[in-house]
Amino acid sequence: MSHPAAPFITPLPWQPPAAFFPLCRTTEHSVFLDSGGPATQDRHRWSLLCPRPVAHLTLPLAEIHQFPQTLRQFLTTHAPATPLEPMDDALPFLGGVIGMLSYEAGMRYAGLTSRHQTECPALTALACRDFFLFDRRAQKLWWVSAEGLPPPAMPTPTHKPALTPHLTPHATQNASHWQEAVQTMRRYIAAGDIFQANLTMRWHADRPAGLDLPLLYEQLRTQCPAPFGAWFHTPDFTLLSASVERFIALDAEGMIETRPIKGTCPISPDPQQNDAFKEALRHDEKERAENLMITDLMRHDIGQVCQLGSVTVPQLFAVEAFAHVHHLVSSVQGRLRPGLDAADLLAATIPPGSVTGAPKYRAMEIIDEVETSARGAYCGTLFRLGWDGTLDSAVIIRSISVTAKTLAIGAGGGITYPSHPEREYEEMCLKAAPLLKVLRHYGS
Q1: Which residues belong to any copy of the Chorismate-utilising enzyme C-terminal domain (predicted)?
Q2: Domain tally for the chain?
Q3: Sign, Cα dihedral of 321, 325, 329, 335
Q4: Which of 262, 290, 371, 431 is catalytic?
Q5: How far apart, in whole angstroms, are the C-alpha atoms of residue 333 and residue 312?
């Protein structure tokens, strides 16, 4: 069979991304990078759906030190022989690798071994050569194919099954145990071990026979629209994400951006009350200190691979609204040093600083001591690495991780010395509540 000499980018009549998601029901591997929320913002603008990746890579935890070179080789092996031709429309992704690095992968790469066991893969990645690309702002749609293959036919609508199994998530710690862990972290801070650490916990549910994962994801994306929503599906592991946090982005000119999130308050339907919440968050000394420390940590992390003097902080303590809460968000930028690439950038920064602490290495040691279960995919990163060397990635928060036996969600927050255990517990539960609602009302 002969193929065209050059890859193809084919405009198609506009359809919303959700219309194509049923294509993911019938394949063993699939990816849907699903930007939700207002498409007017760049972080909410683009979506991508690859119903049939051409290859699957997994790397066990014991070999994670090899991940940069393994990832480069996987990217090169499946890159098209001919670069895709430029278009009038500036498209953010023309093919490459979409993958997940777990939290424990980041720990091991930094030289630490977790005391907790997990079924989650350390690195799993899919090569995406043929996919739909959606510009939600302009309502434009393209089929991108490295081989010039035709797009699959529009899927037929699916119906919700008549019977769906019940999901019952159970917390790994009760309130008093979790609040005692806050006090333990405060004692470490008082002793000078760390300035801050991110304390989290998990809820687990048994995976029942007959679980309809696509239906569960449809309910998650409807109830928790997010700029870094994602469906990442393999036979052994599936990630359903409603993440609100960018981790690291790298453009074709070598510019890096990371957007750490620290600081949370509720959203109120009352505009006056909502403004009061935002103003209180903007001036909360504890939340600002927490955000500043993580911003400084990320300056250090990307500084390891940036040109000298190029790292800046163009945004500090901005209050941004998401589906269920407001957050304090900062931005750190820099320029990648010549001779380095996106794999080097990931290696220098995993696991994300906003879900570890400062100093990062010691914070990870303490986190592993006081937490009672593995984080797995939660607090890892989902990344998109293009043939052209560009990178975008999200911190895996607000997510449901699914293995052969269990479903898991996580939530947490940054602990500093002024942290009040009861207040931290309430904030953590506020973050978990939308995901718990999705699980408990699955199928209804």
Answers
A1: 176-431
A2: 1
A3: negative
A4: 262
A5: 5
CB 98 within 8 A of CB 126: yes
Q: Answer whether residue 3 is part of any domain.
A: no
> What does the alpha-carbon distance between residue 196 and residue 251 come to, in Å, rounded to a whole number?
31
- Burial of residue 69 (CB within 10 Å: 0-12, 13-18, 19+) is exposed
pTM beyond cutoff 0.85: yes
Annotation marks residue 405 as catalytic: no
- Note whether residue 418 is domain-resident: yes
- HSE of 444 in the Cβ direction (CA atoms, 13 Å)? 9
Task: Quote the CA–CA distance of 282 and 405 in Å, as a whole number.
Answer: 42
Which pLDDT belongs to residue 86? 57
The SS3 of residue 324 is coil
Q: Which of 163-172, 279-288, 310-319 has the highest mean pLDDT?
A: 310-319
Q: What whole-number percentage of the chain has pLDDT above 70?
A: 95
C-alpha span between 420 and 177 (Å, rounded): 14
Could you check whether the bond before residue 53 is cis, i.e. omega within 30 degrees of 0?
no
228: containing domain: 8-152+171-440
Active-site pick, 104, 218, 245, 287 = 245
Residue 166 lies in a domain: no
75 within some domain: yes
User: Which residue is it, tokens 């900062």?
Assistant: 330
Largest CA distance in the chain: 69
Query: Is 262 a catalytic site residue?
Result: yes
Give the CATH number, domain containing residue 241. 3.60.120.10
